[in-house]
Design brief:
It is built from no helices and 11 strands. A hairpin with a 5-residue loop joins strand 1 and strand 2.
C-alpha cells in the first residue's frame, strides 16, 4: 500500500506561489515558502521553515538589479551556492560555485577589445569539455 501526502499551495494577490505545505506540516523539510521583492522577483525560498536547510536559498542583486549570487543553506561555501562577477563594462565574466573557482561548474569568460566573447573556461581547466576559445582571422571573422 502506498501513502500519498497531501500538498497545499498558497498564492499571493498577484497569483504567485508563495508556499507549499507537504503533509499538513510547514516544518516538513519538503515544505517551502517563497519571498518576492518590490519588483516581483523571487528573492528567497525557505524549506521546512529553516533557512539553513541545504535546499533553502536566497538571492542577491546588485544596484542595477542584476542577479549576482544565490546562496543555498545560508552557506556561501555550499557547492550549490554561486556568485557572479562583472567587468567594468557590466559584462558577465565569471560564475563561481561553492566559493571554489576550480569547481567544474565554475566558469570564466574573456572578451576581446571589441567586446566579443573569445573564451569560456570551466573550473579553470581549458581542457574541460565545456571550455572553448575562439580565434578570428585578419578581418575579424
Amino acid at each position: 500500500m502506498q501513502t500519498i501526502e497531501k500538498s497545499t499551495y498558497e498564492y499571493d494577490a498577484e497569483g504567485r506561489e508563495v508556499a507549499c505545505v507537504f503533509g499538513q506540516d510547514p516544518k516538513n523539510p519538503r515544505s517551502w515558502r517563497r519571498e518576492y521583492d518590490a519588483e516581483g522577483r523571487e528573492v528567497s525560498c525557505v524549506c521546512g521553515q529553516d533557512p539553513k536547510n541545504p535546499r533553502s536559498w536566497r538571492s542577491e542583486r546588485d544596484a542595477e538589479g542584476r542577479l549576482v549570487a544565490c546562496v543555498y543553506g545560508d552557506d556561501s561555501k555550499n557547492p550549490d551556492s554561486w556568485r557572479s562577477e562583472r567587468d567594468a563594462e557590466g559584462r558577465l565574466v565569471a560564475c563561481v560555485y561553492g566559493d571554489d573557482s576550480k569547481n567544474p561548474l565554475s566558469w570564466r569568460r574573456e572578451y576581446d577589445a571589441e567586446g566579443r566573447e573569445v573564451s569560456f573556461v570551466c573550473g579553470q581547466d581549458p581542457k574541460n569539455p565545456r571550455s572553448w576559445r575562439s580565434e578570428r582571422d585578419a578581418e575579424g571573422r
